Amino acid sequence: MSVLFDRIALIGIGLIGSSLAHDVRRLGLTKQIVVATRSADTLKRAEELGLGDRYTTSSAEAVKDADLIIVSVPVGASESVAKEIAGNLKSGAIVTDVGSTKASVIAQMQPHMPDNVHFIPGHPLAGTEKSGPDAGFPGLFEGRWCIFTPVAGTDETALKRLRGFWEALGSKVDEMDAEHHDKVLAIVSHLPHIIAYNIVGTADDLETVTESEVIKYSASGFRDFTRLAASDPTMWRDVCLHNRDAILEMLARFSEDLAYLQRAIRWGEGDKIFELFTRTRAIRRSIVQAGQDVDAPDFGRPHLLDKK
Ligand code: NAP
C-alpha cells in the first residue's frame, strides 16, 4: 500500500493507539510514526514493542511537522491534549480522535484548533476489554465501522484523505452529526456496558455466593457480562460523564421496559415474554448477517473444558 501521510503522530498509545501503530506500519501508510504518551512507563513499553519511529512524553513535541495527528486518550482528557498541541500544529495537518463520545470531544477540542488545520472527530467501533500498549493488535479495525462526526465547514479534501486512511485499515466509514452518534452509541455500546457493570456489581454485593457459585457456574450467562464489565474503568467513567444526557435517556427507557418484563413475569403473561424473546432473537440473526459477529455457538468459544 502507498504512503498516505508522511508523518503520523499518535497521541495516546493504549489499545487503540497501539492497534493503529501496528496497522500503519504493516500497511506502510506513513514514513514516520511519532508516539506520545504522558507516562514514561507506557512510553518505554511502546518503545520495547517497536510501535513507533520516535517517542516522547510531550504531545506538543510529537505533533511538530506531523501531517496526521490521532488522539487516542480517555475522552475526559481531550481538552488538555488539544491545549497542549494547539501551538505546534503544522498548517494543513489533519487532527482526529477516536473517542467514544463525540459532542463532548468537539466541545473540548474545537475551540483550541487553529484555523489552518482540519479537525475531524472520529470513532472506530472496534475494541476489546483490554487496555494499554500490549493490548493492541493488527487488524483490529478490519470490517468494523468508523464514524466521522464532521463539524460545519469541514474541508472535503481533508475528509476524503482521512476516509482513505480508515479504509486502508479495512474499516467502513460513515458520517453523522455528533448528537446522533452519541444517541446511537448510548444504546449500542454505553448502555450494555453500564448494565454489565451493574449486574456484575450486584453479584459481587451478594458476598455469600460470589466467591464460589457465581464464578463456578458463570458459563450459564454471567460470564458474558463479565467481559464487558472488565473494560477500562477510566475510559468508561469518562464515557458516562461525557455522554450523560443520552445515557440517562436510554437508561430511563431501559427501566420502563424492564418494568414491563417484570410485570409480565409477575402476572404469568407468557405470551408477552415469548413475543419479546422472539423479537430479540431476530436481532442476533441480523448482526450475524451484517458480518458483525459469527454464527458459532457460545460466541465461537472453543470448549476447553470439554477437551479435558
Ligand atoms: P487505553 O488502552 O487505556 O490507553 C489510554 C492512553 O491514553 C494511554 O496512552 C494513556 O497514557 C493515555 N492517557 C490516559 N489518561 C490520560 C490523560 N488524563 N491525559 C493524557 N493521556 C492520558 O485506552 P484505549 O482503549 O486505547 O482508549 C482510547 C480512546 O479510544 C478512548 O477515548 C476511548 O473512548 C476510545 N475507544 C476505545 C475503545 C475500546 O474498546 N477500548 C473502542 C473505541 C474507541 P499513559 O498510559 O501514559 O498514562
UniProtKB/TrEMBL annotation:
The UniProt GO MF terms for this protein read: NAD+ binding; prephenate dehydrogenase (NAD+) activity; prephenate dehydrogenase (NADP+) activity
Q: Which reaction(s) does its UniProt entry say it catalyses?
A: prephenate + NAD(+) = 3-(4-hydroxyphenyl)pyruvate + CO2 + NADH
Q: Which InterPro entries match?
A: 6-PGluconate_DH-like_C_sf, NAD(P)-bd_dom_sf, PDH_C, PDH_N, Preph/Arog_dehydrog, Prephen_DH
Q: In which pathway does this enzyme or protein participate? A: Amino-acid biosynthesis; L-tyrosine biosynthesis; (4-hydroxyphenyl)pyruvate from prephenate (NAD(+) route): step 1/1
Q: What sections of the protein cross the membrane?
A: none
The segment(s) forming the Prephenate/arogenate dehydrogenase domain are 6-295
> Which UniProt keywords are present, listed alphabetically?
Amino-acid biosynthesis, Aromatic amino acid biosynthesis, NAD, Oxidoreductase, Tyrosine biosynthesis
Q: Which Pfam families match?
A: PDH_C (PF20463), PDH_N (PF02153)
Q: What class of enzyme is it?
A: oxidoreductase
Q: Which positions are tagged coiled coil?
A: none
The entry sums up its family as follows: Belongs to the prephenate/arogenate dehydrogenase family.
Q: What is this protein called?
A: prephenate dehydrogenase
Which organism was this protein described from? Rhizobium lentis
